[in-house]
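Subject: sequence -> structure tokens, single chain

Hey, anyone have a minute? Need the predicted structure for the following. Not urgent.
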Amino acid sequence: MDSRYFDPEGLARVGNMELVARQVVEGFITGRHRSPFHGFSAEYLDHRAYTPGDEISTIDWKVLARTDKYFVKLDKLGYGCYLAAALSYLLLRQNDSVGLTLFDTDIKQYIPPQAHPTQFRRILDSLDASASEGDTAVGPVLHRVAERIKRRGLVIIISDLLDKESEIADGLQHFRHNRHEVIVFHVLDDAELTFPYDRLTRFKDMEGAGKVLVNPKSLRKRYLERITAFTENLKNLCFERKISYHLTKTSQPYAACLAEYLDKRSRLG
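Reply:
Had a minute. Here:
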């Protein structure tokens, strides 16, 4: 058996993901959606406990000063995993079939949709084992996923969508052609949206080995123009295809983001 299942820290992370997913969903359903943090401290919902192997730079020193405990803020992947866990729990609670696809340049794992009670645990285990490494090819993979889904349903895409917009649009259109309802959670870090750098900085490609040393001040205006155009273009591409688009910032506690969306969706009927 995979030794990860004997790792107390690994099991703790899965348990916390499950606990928070259940709490967020149950709170919304029972009418507490305007305060989705019932039973939790809101500031820790987008954090997890520090574990050996985490980068020291990811430690939230303000939380350490207040609690004398080490926490790291969830990155985009972790943020997306918690969103996926909460949505999975919500749908399974409604007796809907739920599946999961993890991908980079190809489909890495595919869990076919089921409504069985054990499906939530399968999804949590898969999310816990997920890792960000190598390149991605969002558009081509969306086509492959669309070809696997035989029954019409709801497709939820959680990604930073950092790829060619035209290919992403074609992949999304494949789902719409197959008459699926599509929701896109476009997850980006605040630093990607605001570029808060002043000093000479070395930037590293998160999906490759590339590194570049630059003066951020000389790039800020052009960068902000491009990232704004990128998100607006994706939003418009989704609107044209009748796809629900949500720019999701990691600075907003994912529970608040999800509760806000679910509240809006429930009011729309």
